[in-house]
Design goal:
This protein is of the alpha+beta class and 616 residues long. Helices cover 38% and strands 21% of the residues. The strands form eight sheets. The protein has a six-stranded mixed sheet with strand order 2-17-8-1-7-6, with helices on both faces. Strands 20-27-26-23-24 form a five-stranded mixed sheet, with no helix packed on it.
Length: 616
């Protein structure tokens, strides 16, 4: 008990020096090798030595490499270690394990493949389910980049082998099988009509959302924010704001590149590319649609319209920001992080997405607080196809069309003049461009194939017709003000609160210095219930600590209360306790959003050695 108290206090007051000393002991007595011989289950409650985390991670990654890992078990181990000492030093490695668990579970749920017979059905499946794999893969690589930047050399080889396993699952299984089925189901409609007949079109965005609005509308367009990113934005805004919010996917215009997608989001009757000075410009109703002309196109549809760029307005004062939208009915705000940073650095995408989510939430606050806006549409020009591993040579092709008739070529598409005599490609699949009112023919690289092209990266690409590129998100956000009837009627629905923690045990008297206690999370994490980290400990009436401090990360989303229970082991300090005085169990919200809960206890430990003074 003395050793435990001593180490606990050392950890509380100078954890870094304890960490160095513990590492020295590990090296002196080769503890890592000894722990490797211990079953994984016997290590889960051991926290003193840093190498325990490393050995646990080694064992988990070895199971994953041998295809022996169980997703539920992986998540249980990660959860068990999240509150252990030194966790933060290897948290990115555990983060990788957590995402692998999700990837493996997704694989087991869809082991039969993605054999859907109608294009609109597979579209629906992607927007409701399949997109999750893209999210897990992105989160994996976000953690992996942190591992590379702050490497633990004992784990470096193992995490790289695990990454190769993840690449195989995502690229050679998920993308390959999904894109093969999608090609079969969508090719006919794309070839003949250039679009899916039963899916809402990106070209109708202004007509469907902006034009009918009775109040002021803000449209936030984030370049290359694909559907799965917007889904995460929707979930975060639902928790962090008082709002009505929903998301669905519309079909992006072909080719799925910025200048076409940005044009499709403007009011339009006819969109077509025009070659000017060796470059292709996309025209909207006869007008150029590049950045400097978009405001004029919006004003032609509604004179009270303006265009803003987030990078140019974020550093302005509140008064200056407000003056920019005064009297405006339609405000388009353009944002660019994902596309700008990801094309030339294959590792940049996950961090760019994180920064984008932060920016878009800041834009939301700006619109609500500075612009007094209530209606916001978040959307994008196009999605993207991404793999961290470099595409293999057999997934890269040279286009076999006559270059004399080529208007434009990208990594995932090409635009040809139909005057080439009707010669089709042997590899590229035709996509009608009848919407252009020009004699043009589009071609898309099938599945995840890249077209060889100088001067551009191959990891982050778009322009084609994969679901990842073609599904463009539309997030409908309506801020609910606190003085509205809707809020007053449904206050519980809109107010976001942290989940609460309760004590299951009914006994309020302790008879041992080492004991277990059971807790439960009262609500599941949901749109208006957020996860919380709680610190739990005992103190006396003077608020002096009399036990160790344990933690619970209350982040369970299950509706079943039995899945939201926690068991903690406590150790009282080795001192005398007065059974007539009150002591308190404290449940403290680490975020400070809730007042600490204090539950009165009595401590009655008979024959406590500290109750006798042998030196008087």
């Amino acid at each position: 008990m003395f050793c435990y108290d001593f180490t606990f206090e050392w950890f509380r007051h100078d954890s870094e020096s304890l960490y160095k000393v513990a590492q020295g002991v590990e090296a002196q007595y080769q503890l890592a090798n000894r722990f490797r011989a211990v079953p994984l289950a016997d290590l889960l409650d051991t926290t003193v030595f840093p190498c325990v985390n490393e050995v646990i991670l080694e064992k988990l990654m070895s199971e994953i490499d041998a295809d022996l890992a169980d997703p539920d078990r992986l998540e249980e181990v990660v959860e068990a270690r999240q509150t252990s000492a030194w966790y933060e030093k290897v948290s990115s490695y555990f983060g990788c394990i957590s995402q692998v668990a999700k990837i493996l579970r997704f694989k087991s749920q869809h082991n039969g493949g993605f054999h859907v017979t109608e294009p609109e059905v597979i579209w629906k499946e992607y927007t409701e389910d399949y997109y999750r794999m893209d999210t897990y893969y992105r989160h994996y690589h976000n953690n992996y980049q942190h591992c590379l930047k702050n490497p633990n050399m004992d784990l470096d080889d193992a995490v790289k082998k695990m990454t190769a396993k993840v690449e195989g699952l995502y690229t050679n299984w998920f993308l390959k099988e999904l894109s093969e089925n999608w090609k079969k189901m969508s090719s006919e409609e794309l070839d003949k009509k250039g679009r899916l007949l039963k899916v809402e079109q990106q070209r109708s965005f202004y007509q469907n959302y902006v034009e009918p609005a009775n109040n002021r509308v803000f449209v936030v367009i984030s370049d290359a924010m694909r559907y799965e990113v917007a889904k995460e934005l929707t979930e975060q805004l639902a928790q962090e704001t008082r709002s009505q919010i929903s998301i669905h996917g519309v079909e992006g215009i072909f080719p799925t590149v910025t200048k076409f997608g940005m044009a499709a989001l403007l009011p339009n009757e006819v969109i077509y590319p025009e070659e000017t000075g060796g470059n292709v410009m996309v025209m909207v109703d006869g007008q150029p649609s590049d950045a400097q002309h978009r405001e004029a196109i919006l004003e032609a549809a509604n004179p009270a319209s303006c265009v803003l760029k987030y990078d140019e307005i974020r550093d302005l004062t509140r008064d200056k920001q407000s003056s920019l939208v005064k009297g405006m009915k339609v405000v388009y705000i353009y944002h660019d992080q994902i596309d700008k940073r990801s094309h030339h650095d294959k590792a940049a995408m996950p961090a760019a997405v994180d920064d984008t989510l932060t920016d878009l939430k800041n834009i939301t606050k700006m619109i609500i607080n500075e612009f007094s806006g209530t209606t916001i549409y978040f959307t994008s020009d196009h999605g993207f196809l991404y793999t961290y591993s470099d595409p293999e040579e057999n997934t890269k092709i040279s286009h076999d069309l006559d270059s004399d008739y080529t208007l434009e070529i990208g990594n995932r598409y090409t635009i040809q003049s139909k005057n080439n005599g009707g010669i089709d490609s042997s590899f590229l699949k035709p996509v009608s461009m009848a919407y252009t009112c020009r004699d043009l023919q589009g071609y898309a690289a099938p599945e995840t194939i890249r077209i060889k092209k100088s001067g551009s990266g191959m990891n982050f690409v778009h322009g084609g017709t994969s679901l990842q590129e073609l599904v463009v998100p539309v997030v409908e956000f309506h801020h609910v003000r606190s003085d509205t009837k809707e809020y007053l009627r449904n206050q519980e629905k809109y107010d976001t609160k942290p989940v609460e923690l309760g004590l299951l045990d009914t006994n309020r008297e302790l008879h041992n210095k080492i004991f277990n206690m059971n807790f439960y999370q009262k609500d599941g994490v949901s749109a208006n219930r957020t996860a919380v980290t709680y610190s739990i400990y005992f103190e006396d009436s003077n608020k002096e600590l009399v036990s160790d401090i344990q933690q619970i990360i209350a982040d369970k989303s299950s509706e079943d209360i039995t899945d939201r229970q926690f068991k903690l082991a406590f150790s009282l300090k080795d001192q005398a306790y007065d059974n007539l005085k009150p002591y308190y169990l404290v449940i403290k919200d680490e975020s400070g959003l809730q007042a600490p809960i204090r539950i009165e206890f009595r401590i009655n430990i008979p024959m406590s050695m500290d109750g006798f003074n042998f030196f008087d």
